[in-house]
Amino acid sequence: MKYTDRPDAVLLLEDGTFFKGKSIGFKGTKGGEICFNTGMTGYQEIYTDPSYYAQIMVNTNAHIGNYGTVSTEVESDSPKIFGLVTNNFSESFSRHTGEESLHDYLNKHEVPGITDVDTRAIVRHIRSKGAMNAIISSEILDADELKKELDKVPSMEGLELSSQVSVKEAYEVGPADGIKLAVMDYGIKSSILQQLVQRGFYCKVFPAKTTFDITEEWKPTAYFLSNGPGDPAVMKYAIDHAKNIIDADKPLFGICLGHQLIAQACGIGTFKMYNGHRGLNQPVKNILSGKSEITSQNHGFSVISEEVRNSDLVEVTHINLNDDTIEGLKIKNKKAFCVQYHPESSPGPHDSRYLFDQFISLIN
Ligand SMILES: NC(=O)CC[C@H](N)C(=O)O
């Protein structure tokens, strides 16, 4: 498709704010929670991260698409975002390993997008008004008509989504003589599994709703709770599973949603943030070592600081240097810890990969 031939598309926000632009990717209509990611690279990894399921992504990096897509640089089998908003979208791409244009890739996976909109204005708007739903369409260009579709989009708060992106059947990966690790797949990024396998873990990846009795039948040495989409507070099945792991005194590591579930299992609440953290340069301080890390993040919920600080069960290990939110926890007198950010990065800096080594040391 030539750039000038692109059909029109529109973006409507829940508060009525309306943007006109050009259609990219799939021609259609799709709504979700609008959020922005400030990362300058790694768009394909971001779009395929299952934690973004049901969200419309605004990239603050103006130039998107210019290095195309590669089938191996994915965090899951397909893009999980529900829509894409960019400022300057490039259909032609230049990269020696590039396989397919981002436009074709999004079209193939039925992800609609809009480009040629003022992404800085959109980001400033949602940053000051808070998280909200939005809808993209290249079919319904009238705001009033589109509003009827937008009204059908559920709010992220109270949504259970992990079971929609989790694996359907359990599978095993890694060296068979490695440490047996039960991995709860709430929407796991493939680079997390890679980090675990690279360190010699023999992983069995279980569907989100697998009960503790079933995971225990495999006789795992340790447990891992993955990242994933949706609201942790309504995931009773996963919170109960985490409680069982903690009660059984099994070594446990959780990332992002996994961190929130461990907090919930310890009686600590989570809340919907006014704006989430999504980017590759969130500064975090490790309180135990005194060192700071630049971290990759993607979350819209967070654990309630006061409840953490009043808890006898947990200890804070990491804090966010931008807004003091809790970034890491350790359960007292247990081999259990978790972080809100993404130590596997992908995309992002590798400052925090020591946490995977820490998990091995803890088990040994
Ligand atoms: N990356 C994640 O695991 C995200 C966790 C959760 N869905 C949130 O938005 O906070």
Q: Top keywords for this entry?
A:
364 residues; alpha/beta; Glucose Oxidase, domain 1; Rossmann fold; 10-stranded mixed sheet; 24% helix; globular; binds glutamine
Task: Describe the secondary structure blueprint for this structure.
Elements: E1 8-13, E2 18-25, E3 29-37, H1 43-48, E4 55-59, E5 63-64, E6 83-85, E7 88-89, H2 102-108, E8 112-115, H3 119-129, E9 132-137, H4 143-150, H5 162-165, E10 171-173, E11 179-185, H6 190-198, E12 201-207, H7 212-217, E13 222-225, H8 236-247, E14 252-255, H9 257-265, E15 270-286, E16 292-303, H10 305-309, E17 314-320, E18 326-331, E19 336-339, H11 354-363
Parallel strand pairs: 3-4, 4-6, 5-7, 6-8, 11-12, 11-13, 13-14, 14-19
Antiparallel strand pairs: 1-2, 1-9, 2-8, 3-9, 10-12, 15-16, 15-17, 17-18, 18-19
The structure holds glutamine.
Residues 51, 227-230, 256-257, 276, 298-301 line the site of glutamine (GLN).
Describe the structure.
- Residues 1-175 are annotated as: CPSase.
- Residues 7-137 form the Carbamoyl-phosphate synthase small subunit N-terminal domain.
- L-glutamine binds at residues 51, 228, 230, 257, 260, 298, 300-301.
- Pathway: Pyrimidine metabolism; UMP biosynthesis via de novo pathway; (S)-dihydroorotate from bicarbonate: step 1/3; Amino-acid biosynthesis; L-arginine biosynthesis; carbamoyl phosphate from bicarbonate: step 1/1.
- With 364 residues, the chain is an alpha/beta fold.
- Helix content is 24%, strand content 32%.
- It is built from eleven helices and 19 strands.
- The structure holds glutamine (GLN).
